[in-house]
Each structure stands twice: as C-alpha cells, then as structure tokens.
Amino acid sequence: MNNDMLDLNTEDFISEDEISLLVVEPQYEGMRLDKYLTKLNESMSRSYIQKLIKDDHVVINGKPAKSNYKLSAQDEIEFNIPTPVSIDILPEDIPLSILYEDNDLIVIDKPKNMVVHPAPGYYSGTIVNALMYHCKDNLSGINGVLRPGIVHRIDKNTTGAIVICKNDMAHNSLAAQLKDHSITRKYNAIVYNHFNNEEGLVDAPIGRHPIDRKKMAINYKNGREAITHYHVIQNLDQNFAHIECQLETGRTHQIRVHLTSINHPLLGDDVYGPAKSKFNLEGQTLHARILGFKHPSTGEYMEFKAPLPDYFKSILNILTV
Questions:
Q1: Catalytically annotated residue among 34, 75, 155, 269
Q2: Average pLDDT score over residue span 239-255
C-alpha cells in the first residue's frame, strides 16, 4: 500500500513489553540511530525500527530521538521492544477470479475496492481472507499471519494480476525476482493531459511525504530508487490519455506519484490528482494487465494477462476520439 495503506505486518500490532538499555560504543560514533538499532536487531526491518522511533519507543539521553540522529559515544539509549499481539485472520468464502493455479502459486485478477491483506480497518473481505478459504493451509508463511503468501500487492482500488505463493520455496523465488527487477509488471492507466512524446521514463526516488505521512512523494533526501517506464497507447478525447506503464522498481504508490510528478495524474485518483472527477469512479483508473515471471519450480518464464475491467473499457469508449 496504497498502495492505499502502509506496508504492514504483525509488528504493527503491538503492546508494551521490555525496555533494552544500551550505551553506544565508540566504534558506532556518527552512525545513524535507525541503522545502529537495525544492526543490533537483525530480525527487525529498518522500516519497522524507524516506525518505533517515530512512535517514541526510543529515547536517547532521556529525550525522544529521530531516525537520522547521529550517535555519540556513551549515548544512553532506552529501546522499548514491543510484543506482537496475536491477530486472528479468518478464512472467508469470497469468489476469486483465478488466472492460473498450481501447487506452488496462484495468480488472480483482483477486483476494485478490495484490499490485498488485513490491516487496521480491513480485517475481513481481503484477498488473504479469500485465499485462506480457497487454499486452506497451502500458503507461504514467510510474511506472517497477516500476509500469508503475499509477495507483492496492488492498491485497494487498482485492479488486475497479482501472484500469491503457496510455499516458502516459491515465495523466496518470487521475492528474489522482485529484488533483481526481473518480474514483468505492466499496467494500463487513463491519465490527465495529452502527451507530446510516445514514450518516456520517470526516474525519481519515492519516500514518505514530509508533511502528510499517509502519502508518498518524490523524496530525493530519504526516498528509495524508483523507475517507471511509460508508453502512450492513445491520446483520448477531453484531454485524457491511455498509457501503459512498466515498473522497473515497485515502491508504494509508484505509478501514481510518478505520473503526477510529470503532470499526468491518474483519472479518479483523489489522493494525488484532482479532488473531483467527472466520472463516477472508485479510485484511480489503474489496471495491472500483464504479470510475468520464471516459475519457481520449472524455471520456465510464464506471463499472465488480466483483461481490462468493464469500468475501464466503458471510459475508453466514452473518451476514444
């Protein structure tokens, strides 16, 4: 998310527990606080450490600290390590549009207004709830109880192809392919404003918005590398355009943020684009149409296509010159 939500896992559901007392040794002088705590707690992700710091679970010399605080020798750190609270996620008999399925994975065509995995405010009706009913116990456990089998995700109001893993071998394989950018992910989008060029790319790092923490933004100081390629399928009537985007990286809200940054916000995106749309839409017109990867067991390259949803085709019919 986000994707409409932040990246969440079991670490986000916490209660107070023990406090670790640390004294910074001279060799760590000048190191960032978040990097230091991540180094000492290898089982925790850096993003989770940063969240704990932001939520005032870390105190240095009696005062709350920031992630980018540069350590001094003999700094005294109080680090509250929360204990995860058990969350029961229940299977639900929700129909799935299955594009492909075997013993290792399942590829589905996600509909609009459906969240991929449980998070605050979304504990039922998610893809995970449906998968737990459909796959029973055959889902990878790597991402914990809230995201079993989930390797990647798409936003609540983005439609299209997503792959879920049924075992840890498949999960590790797909995760490695995501990391080295070898998975094919192509999206169709309807955006504001005509293009003068047929194709291009946006290469700009994405990070949390400096003011609105629920949004992402181009962030050269603290963002992560993000690259989106785009190809114009057709300039449409009423100054809209139909384009294809291919992700080289996969940051939260990447396509939405990148296209807005070049003055082509997505139609229906009331977070990064105009607040109102002339069409009655549930969020952005963005569809994950093509998903391709090497099968984790056979090594064979496989590619799946999710047909454009009816709402998307209807808008195209209205706007086609």
A1: 155
A2: 95
Q: Which domain holds residue 290?
A: 181-321
- Counted domains in the chain: 3
Q: Is 155 labeled as catalytic in the residue annotation?
A: yes
Query: How far is residue 255 CA from its own chain's centroid?
Result: 11
268 versus 278: the higher-pLDDT residue is: 268
Q: What percent of the chain has pLDDT over 90?
A: 62
- From CA 194, how far away is CA 201, in angstroms rounded? 16
3 located within any domain: no
Range 142-167 average pLDDT: 89
Q: Are 271 and 260 in contact (CB under 8 A)?
A: no
236 inside domain: yes
140, burial (CB in 10 Å: exposed 0-12, middle 13-18, buried 19+): buried
- Taken in order 171, 174, 178, 179, the sign of the CA dihedral is positive
- Express each pLDDT in 179-207 by its tens digit: 899 999 999 999 999 999 999 999 999 98
Q: CA–CA separation, 36 vs 28, rounded Å?
A: 7
* Cα separation, 190 vs 293, whole angstroms: 25
Confidence category of residue 83, pLDDT binned at 50, 70, 90:
low
Last residue of a domain, one of 18, 53, 84: 84
Residues 6+ apart with CB under 8 A from 310: none
Give me the pLDDT at residue 7, please. 32
Q: Are residues 44 and 158 in the same domain?
A: no
